């Protein structure tokens, strides 16, 4: 590896290693893009593609992101944007879980969908997209439905799980498995002009309380549908929460939920602790 490092140092512009040098190191030394990126970050250098991160995410923190493993459950409206943003952010390992194929009604909002992709598995499209935009990121495609039966196996070694599901039943199963495995979970839900975002750490019950009055049936997304912009907004907020969890910084949406109304352009911060206090006072 000394020869690789010597080459990378020789091509560095300050502490930035340009993409051309990374690509040449892959070709010349027979390494993967992930191996080259790992070497760069371990030596305190920064791949030039992340230079606009650096005032927000330090080089040390960039290495933390690269060494993280995040599961995205659902690769549709929310999941496509979440995966795209995680890959561009530099999260090194992404597990994409979804049993579905693309259908025509996905074309209005799902980032990885296209007429050419109709009938193809969503996880395969996710893997192809990540390989195109950031080959250093390893995306593991899992074409399965997430359940309590396979959940522990699918989330093995995961740092954070991101909910991009359109099923309340599966979402509650995900929350159960995350709780049992001590994995933080970032929750997101969308329907029409509206969305919710929250973060649940092990031991919390935010999601269970959110759906405490739920009865069997379709979620609100099935009734209201979704335009192109709602999943993009909610997914971006979810990725911000994931980034904060991975880096251990900032204030999380814990014990509270953002309720987003894009029609009236209002965002409400619902605190479950405050609601509980009001109930006790009453």
From TrEMBL:
Taxonomy, superkingdom: Bacteria
Record Pfam families: ThiF (PF00899)
Chain coiled-coil ranges: none
Name of the featured protein: Molybdopterin biosynthesis sulfur carrier protein sulfurylase
Residue ranges annotated for the THIF-type NAD/FAD binding fold domain, each copy included: 50-269
GO molecular function: tRNA threonylcarbamoyladenosine dehydratase; ubiquitin-like modifier activating enzyme activity
Any GO BP annotation: cyclic threonylcarbamoyladenosine biosynthetic process
CDD domains tied to this protein: ThiF_MoeB_HesA_family (cd00757)
């Amino acid at each position: 590896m000394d020869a690789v490092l010597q080459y990378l140092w020789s091509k560095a512009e300050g502490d930035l290693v340009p993409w051309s040098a990374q690509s040449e190191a892959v070709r010349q030394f027979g390494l993967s893009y992930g191996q080259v990126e790992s070497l760069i970050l371990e030596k305190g250098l920064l791949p030039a593609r992340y230079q606009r991160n650096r005032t927000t995410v330090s080089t040390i923190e960039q290495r933390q992101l690269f060494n993280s493993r995040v599961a995205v459950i659902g690769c549709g409206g929310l999941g496509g944007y979440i995966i795209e943003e995680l890959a561009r952010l530099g999260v090194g390992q992404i597990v994409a879980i979804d049993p579905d194929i693309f259908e025509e009604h996905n074309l209005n909002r799902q980032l990885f969908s296209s007429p050419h992709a109709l009938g193809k598995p969503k996880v395969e499209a996710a893997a192809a997209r990540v390989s195109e935009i950031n080959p250093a990121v390893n995306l593991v495609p899992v074409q399965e439905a997430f359940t309590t039966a396979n959940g522990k196996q699918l989330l093995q070694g995961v740092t954070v799980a991101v909910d991009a599901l359109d099923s309340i039943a599966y979402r509650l199963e995900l929350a159960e498995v995350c709780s049992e495995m001590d994995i933080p979970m970032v929750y997101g839900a969308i329907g029409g002009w509206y969305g919710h975002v929250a973060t649940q750490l092990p031991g919390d019950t935010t999601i269970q309380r959110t759906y405490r009055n739920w009865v069997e049936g379709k979620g609100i997304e099935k009734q209201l549908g979704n335009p192109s912009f709602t999943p993009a907004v909610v997914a971006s907020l979810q990725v911000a929460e994931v980034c904060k969890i991975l880096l251990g910084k900032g204030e999380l949406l814990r014990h509270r939920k953002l309720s987003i109304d894009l029609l009236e352009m209002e965002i409400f911060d619902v605190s479950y602790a405050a609601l509980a206090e009001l109930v006790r006072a009453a």
